[in-house]
Amino acid sequence: MGLLISGIDEAGRGSLVGPLIIAGISLDQENLKQISKLGLKDSKLFNGVKGERKRAKLSSIIEEKATELEIIEIQAQDIDVTLDNRPHDNLNLLELRHFADIIFRLDSSEIIIDNLSTPKYSYEVLMRYFQEKSPDFRSKILFTDSKCIRFSIKNEIQERIIKISKKADRDFPIVSAASCVAKTHRDSKLREIEAKWNLPNYQLGRGYPNPADTNIIEFLQEYSDKIYNRKYPFIRYKWNWPPLQLILQRKKPKLDNFFKNK
């Protein structure tokens, strides 16, 4: 087995429903090269039904070839608790806590992470969590600019290189791999939610507040009474998306006008 490289990325950050999924993947360089030749790219670039099927197929190959695979699910209720604790907590801090957990579980010598906020911010937050997890931990910045930061982390056991980069899911195949696995797992969870709550298949669409996603728009309209009564634990009720908040305020006429104008 060759030198391992790891990538970490998430899926579902801006979604209205379902979990946020974080994936950490380790592959050796040869397997990563072979998977890249199959059309690996950022999960957001797989469009339409054919694109989704290709991403799902790639994700299956990635998981089969991965030397290490870490998947974390952050449920809607946990996201709501985090948002309720602002300004002391926020979604970036929540994600970075879990990024730190995955980093400590992975055993590769190099880890690349898709950026949250700014690279400097992500670095400073991770340093705080690393110190909490390992008091003997040491770090050294090797390179930094507005788009990325590269640094080493070291304790008594090992030394590793971590890079936090903007658009890492686009620019680094290993992060594209993590992106695809996270997205595929999240899509699967949405279908499981629909089955559990007796909703039509694909009723939740991709889960994002986008007027073009007519399935979730129809869900919001048809099930507004149950949403108002908070019957669905998979919804992020603290999300400040106007249609959701209108439902929770019982302002149906305004909600209808919102959809009519989209």
Description:
Helix 10 (242-248) runs antiparallel to helix 11. The chain has helices at residues 29-36, 48-65, 76-84, 91-105, 119-133, 168-171, 173-196, 214-222, 224-228, 242-248, 252-260; strands spanning 4-11, 20-28, 68-74, 110-114, 138-144, 148-154, 159-165. The termini are far apart. It has 2 domains: 4-188, Nucleotidyltransferase, domain 5 (2-Layer Sandwich), CATH 3.30.420; 198-260, no CATH class. It has a 7-stranded mixed beta sheet, with helices on both faces. The longest helix is centred in the C-terminal third of the chain and has 24 residues, at 173-196. By secondary structure, the chain is α/β, with parallel strands linked by helices. The protein contains 11 helices and 7 strands.
In short:
By secondary structure, the protein is of the alpha/beta class.
